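Hi there, hope your week has been kind to you so far. For a while now I've been wondering how a particular protein folds. I'm sending you its amino acid sequence along with the backbone structure tokens. Could you read through the record and tell me how the tokens relate to the sequence? Take your time with it, there's no hurry, and the full record follows here.
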Amino acid sequence: MITVGTTVVSGSPINGGGGGGAGLPVATGAGEVPLSTGAGTTYVATDFSAQTQTVIAGSIGPVAGQTFIGDGGGGVSLTSADVSGFLAAADAPAMRSALCDRAISLAGLTASNGNGTAVAATGTLSYASGQTGGAWADYPRLVGAHGASIWAFEAAVRITITGTASSNTVASLGIGSTGSAYDAVSMVRLFGDGQIDGLAVSGGAVWSVYTPGTLPVNGTGWLRVRVQAGVMTCWTGVGASYSAAAWTLRDRRLMVAPPNADNTYPSLALVLYQGVDPGAPGVQAVYSDLVIRDLP
């Protein structure tokens, strides 16, 4: 028996083992705690750190970055998916992306076929043999509100062009004042032969706004437009992902004022132009990995 002060406590010794829960196990090393092996069975000496990790992992689950957080009422809960994503970020740029990226997807844009075919779910715009597009209504396109801050944001997308593409094939990323005829629009464009340029359009007037260059059409080429402090910059990038892309600034200039009341560019457009009959099998532009981000 065990005596604590002048009080006698009946029971088995703390050390000594024994079956049927008759005692606690003899430790085999520092930092161990007793762990039962089942009702009415023995205890085993187990590493405390390992058991703590097991309990936490079992409570948190497989979500990267998820952890416990006070619920404000004296209890605890788990971090949300957004907060967990931020905590799981590998570096400062990834943290900024987790904070600033918008949830808009290609599937959330509105598809218009024009003279070709537009599929929002796959980000695919195409013309078959015999089809061309010479005006806005003719272009297959994906259009919608980008949802970012209208004063400071960026839009970027990766593009693959296949088929009988040529210098008369133009895949573009644009921002505009409306989602219709884009009376005012600023865009950066990738041609089927790999050339790039940009355009600013307002009231029917067109300005070429780019530093010439080339970009792969094999799916590693990116287009990006940024708006910040009244200045628009156009970029191209090369890489398998947005974060891994090597970016090149192609143009920087004051924004062309759109005709809407607050002089902003709330709309996004992904458009495919085809100036001549592409012949068989036709041309296709696939837009992937759309990124919409607020900027500081």
Notes: The first strand starts at residue 2 and ends at 4. Helices lie at 48-60, 81-87, 92-100. Residues 73 and 79 are 15 Å apart (CA to CA). Residues 1-60 form one domain.
